Amino acid sequence: RGNFLSAAVWATPPSAAGTPVKPSADNKTMRRLLGLSLLLTLLACSTKTSAASPEFNEDVEYKVVNNPETRPNPQKIEVREFFWYGCPHCYQFESEINPWLLRKSEDISFKRVPHSMGRNTGDMHSLAFHMAEHLGILKLIHPQMFKAIQDRKQNMDTLADICGLFQQFGNIKEDRCHAAAENDEVLHARDHDEFL
């Protein structure tokens, strides 16, 4: 009682004459409640709970990567954005990531990684990303893919849909679009990203 109560009395506002005000019954009750809440807080903080130090089990909550990928430039911090064009949250995130890309420091490399998220349409979307990259029109096509799917509600799940978008926004003729879809490098890049 001594140290805590003396601290509580010390914290009582002084009177006009500079001497402490005599605690009233209400002040005593308030000090006791404050002391009790402080004691309960200290007990709660000192008690070890499973939420404070969770147990994680290999192959249940995580998997060990046996052969982790090497970074192209170990001197840079690599940030990878995994996304799917059919994901509305990924589309909304574009408004956050694009301004960040303009102001990120030079020691950061950024890579977008399309992923199917286990969907057949996602596989076609990933292919479209790598086709656009191969054809050199990714900066034009990337935002247009999101807009076609998210704003205009187009599925973009066939090669004809993709080639139509490439023609409209990238001036890519159908034969070049089809050739890109069958290109070994494009197919390998799509399969590689799906594996990650």
Overview of this structure, please?
With 196 residues, the chain is mostly helical. It is built from eight helices and two strands; from the N terminus they run H-H-E-H-E-H-H-H-H-H. A two-stranded parallel ribbon has the order 1-2. Helix 3 links the parallel strand 1 (77-83) and strand 2 (108-114). The longest helix is centred in the first third of the chain and has 22 residues, at 25-46.
Helix/strand class: mainly alpha
Strand order in space, largest sheet: 1-2
Mean pLDDT: 81
Number of E-type strands: 2
Low-confidence runs of at least 5 consecutive residues = 1-17
Instruction: Quickly count the helices.
Output: 8
Largest sheet: 2 strands, parallel
Shape: elongated
Determine the strand fraction and express it as a percent band: 5-15%
The portion of residues assigned to helices is 55-70%
Gap between N and C termini, in Å?
Answer: 61 Å
| SSE pattern | HHEHEHHHHH
Radius of gyration: 30 Å
Looking at this protein, list some descriptive labels.
mainly alpha, 2 strands
Task: Give a nutshell description of this structure.
Helix content is 56%, strand content 7%. The chain has 196 residues and is mainly alpha-helical.
Secondary structure elements and pairings:
Layout: H1 2-10, H2 25-46, E1 77-83, H3 88-103, E2 108-114, H4 120-135, H5 138-151, H6 159-170, H7 174-181, H8 184-195
Parallel strand pairs: 1-2
